[in-house]
Amino acid sequence: MKLYFQEEHYMLQDMVRDFAINEVAPLSEALDKDERFPIDLIPKLAELGLLGIPFSEKYGGAGMDTMAYTLVIEELAKVDSSVAITVAAHISLGTYPIYLFGTEQQKAQHLPKLIAGEYLACFGLTEPEAGSDAGGTKTNAVQDGDEWIINGSKNFITNAGYSGVCNLTAVTDPDLKRPSGISVFMVDPKTPGFIIGPPEKKMGWRGSDTRALTFDNMRVHKSALLGELNVGFKQMMTALVGGRISVAALSLGLAEGALQAALKYSDEREAFGKKIHDFQGIGLQLADIATEIEAARHLVYYASYLKDQGENVVKAAAMAKLKASEVAVRATNFAVQVHGGYGYIKEFQVERFFRDAKVLTIGEGTSEVQKLVILKQLLKGL
Ligand SMILES: Cc1cc2nc3c(=O)[nH]c(=O)nc-3n(C[C@H](O)[C@H](O)[C@H](O)COP(=O)(O)OP(=O)(O)OC[C@H]3O[C@@H](n4cnc5c(N)ncnc54)[C@H](O)[C@@H]3O)c2cc1C
Predict the structure, then answer these.
(1) Which residues lie with the beta carbon below 6 Å from any ligand 1 atom?
(2) Which domains are seen in the chain, by residue range?
(3) Per-residue model confidence as pLDDT tens digits over 288-301
(4) pTM (2 decimals)?
(5) Would you call 368 a catalytic residue per the annotation?
(6) Which distant-in-sequence residues (6+ apart) come within 8 Å of 292 by Cβ?
């Protein structure tokens, strides 16, 4: 991949691959089975610098680029999507908005701790009645002297049970035309009125933490406002564009993990006196999936490259996320098929891969929403 990588990328890739194989993979089955958050891995991830890859050294980050961050998520997802999304949500959704839009004081307060893994961060955008239509947020904030009083709720918030700060959207000026009039508040979950729901029971990503949040007359000081007032929707959408590249990287890694498992099994399993990849029905599909994965890889790396060049990546990120997530669903489905009945048994990791894949076409914007984003960008070019 000389087209996209420099020496430092190869070194990072080797390091994360070793870590994923030696430290993450042995835990993956239990994390999934017991729906257990990988809390013990957080200090190790931080120690390796993996929670601060794209952030400035000034705050304790590695000062590396998007391509490096993409590689980290890809390598983790080859073995464990729950660990990969825990890191991706922490970086792209939790930490990045503070990095991009926080005041110097807000950055100094949170970034070193987030990068050191002292606590995680979460991103509260989705609500029971505002998912794809995220600008339809109903959570509201009313100013009262030096404080804001926030009421409302959020749904499906990743890392919510382990975060020391949650970036959440609330309507601060109902008279402005949406999506203006929404602001982001960085809230300490220990604030009275911040109610954290139990972990959701999920099809996949069972080792990751997903919860509903409720805000009941929650009072936050005005210093909790992230950057400027009434531009929160724009801030969150900017973070989501980066987040989509990380979900695309996660999808790519998962698809690669599934293909490797399918290839290996197809070389071991025999039927009718032949290895099963010698049947064209299996062998040609392995080639098809591998080709799809390479196509997805180029979209993911290209979006990362463009972001590093400071280009507008709205379309490239949506295309990468759309393609890679759909490929992950196909690749994991096929990997189960190649394993026959064993693919349906939990002892084989492709069963977990299959369940972990579906959410990739839903979270951080569904496939339909990615297509709407792509179309909008295409029409802008007319
Ligand atoms: C495990 C998990 C973790 C998540 N983590 C977070 C998180 O950390 N923070 C956060 O804020 N959110 C998070 N989400 C929420 C996620 O981003 C939303 O679920 C997603 O954006 C879809 O919103 P929705 O569930 O309300 O579906 P809806 O918006 O109700 O969509 C339902 C269906 O309608 C389709 N649809 C909707 N509008 C259109 C349209 N205009 N054109 C065509 N089709 C349309 C959708 O594509 C979908 O198929 C998470 C979700 C999951 C499952």
Answers:
(1) 89, 93, 122-126, 131-132, 156-158, 202, 205, 210, 359, 362-366, 368-369, 372
(2) 7-120 (1.10.540.10), 122-229 (2.40.110.10), 234-380 (1.20.140.10)
(3) 999 999 999 999 99
(4) 0.98
(5) no
(6) 255, 327, 330, 331
